[in-house]
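Question (not urgent): is this output format expected?
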Amino acid sequence: MGVAARLASCVLLALGVLGVLATLPSLPAQAQDAAACPPPDPAWATATAGAGASATPTSPPPIRPRVDGPSGVVALTFDAGADRGYAEDILDALLAEQVPATFGMTGTWAQANADLVARMAAEGHQVINHTYDHRSFTGLSDRLGGLSADRRRQELLDADAIIAPLIGHTTCPWFRVPYGDDDARVDQDVAELGYTQKVGWTIDTLGWRGARVQDIVARSLRLAAPDAIYVMHVGIQSRDGPALPPVIDGLREQGYGFATVAALASE
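Got this back:
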């Protein structure tokens, strides 16, 4: 994706489309979750016992969804849509440090890396819907003309059909639009499916732009604030994976704990 297009997407988010922080006031969480999300499928019950999982469906996950710190909490989110990249290293670091995280998952990535998706859920991380193949909803970043309301809904449905059996439950109501490309119609277009919790970010580490590890760490710590939502990427072209351990250490030194986006939103 071009730098100018990605920066334009970030500007759109900064102007008020900050995902969960922007959508939560519209309905109580219980009402949003019940809007139209599909009922549980009994076949999903044993999904998280798959390869690479660290917990069984009947045992609690090893990582709690929220670990408070004296300065508050932040949410680390990782988008997975390209290659396997540093995903295993990221999961190993999160498990070793007992840090919960949120993974924005495309259907194609989940299909290619089913073992890691099952592991994410089994270890206590939140997995959210990042559409099937990362097509821009508006066409701003990929220059492919954008998607109709029906195509937007189908992107979420197709992704969930792959992800839900791997994590043991639907991704609904949580989703992240590709590239952060948003417009005034997105919320209405997908709400009828139950996708009412749009997850954006407040801090972009810029790993996707090829930032060096030391720059990712410095930026992450300089911009830290209570309830911040970081966006990182698991792909090999981003150095977010190698930067993660010092980012965690630095945030802890500043007094921050960690939470999944769902746990952050429920406070």
